[in-house]
Amino acid sequence: MRSLTAGYRRRAVLHDLTAVVPRARHTVVMGANGSGKSTLLSVFARLVRPMSGRLSLPARCALVVQDGPSAQAMPITVRQVMAMARWKGPWRPATRHDRAVVDRRLAELGVLDLAERQFGTLSGGQRQRVLVAQGLAQEAELLLLDEPATGVDEAARERIREALAAAVAQGTTVVQATHDRRAALDADLCLTLEAGRLS
Ligand SMILES: Nc1ncnc2c1ncn2[C@@H]1O[C@H](COP(=O)(O)OP(=O)(O)OP(=O)(O)O)[C@@H](O)[C@H]1O
């Protein structure tokens, strides 16, 4: 991104950001509440359009949003949440390969045994792991995660760390917004936002 400015309606939240996010590496975005981390991920996910500046993005990206009431209210099973990750259109049913990818990702995050459960009945940490598995199952070039380790215990956090490291080793570019200093230490690059500017 070069001289990137973005925000909502006419109000800029991110100001004049210039940085290179390295391909097939793990980048973390840190900063205080309201500094613009989620907004930056939304720009990368093409949900928020830049007001000015330049941005070059890979074709396919996946976004793991923060768990919240709307996710919990979905009346669907974990397996159906995962099916969304592999959805290719109404006339293209899931293949054996799709099912294998889903099972592998659920197992990787330690939640395969929850596959038939209603998503909304899981604990917060279990839902969070399913959402990370859903992001990974999309096999996108760019994987964006908004505070994926919020509310998860140390063992689950470790699973998420390992799963993201494995994805990076396989060529995925991972960008993660986090308040977790440990995640920042493990990352290849740390972008720090202060009131919408890179510091
Ligand atoms: N949909 C929206 N419409 C208008 N303003 C928004 C919207 N989303 C975020 N903002 C504003 O943009 C600014 C940055 O918010 P953002 O959610 O990007 O910060 P953050 O660093 O992710 O915060 P947190 O650590 O609390 O998740 C805040 O002032 C916020 O009020």
TrEMBL record:
* Keywords, ordered alphabetically: ATP-binding, Nucleotide-binding, Transport
Tagged with keyword ATP-binding? yes
Q: Which Pfam families match?
A: ABC_tran
Gene Ontology molecular function terms on file? ATP binding
SUPFAM superfamilies assigned: P-loop containing nucleoside triphosphate hydrolases
Superkingdom assignment: Bacteria
Where's the ABC transporter domain?
1-199
Q: Does the keyword Protein biosynthesis apply?
A: no
Q: Which family does it belong to?
A: Belongs to the ABC transporter superfamily.
> Know the name of this protein?
ATP-binding cassette domain-containing protein
Q: Which organism is it from?
A: Nonomuraea typhae
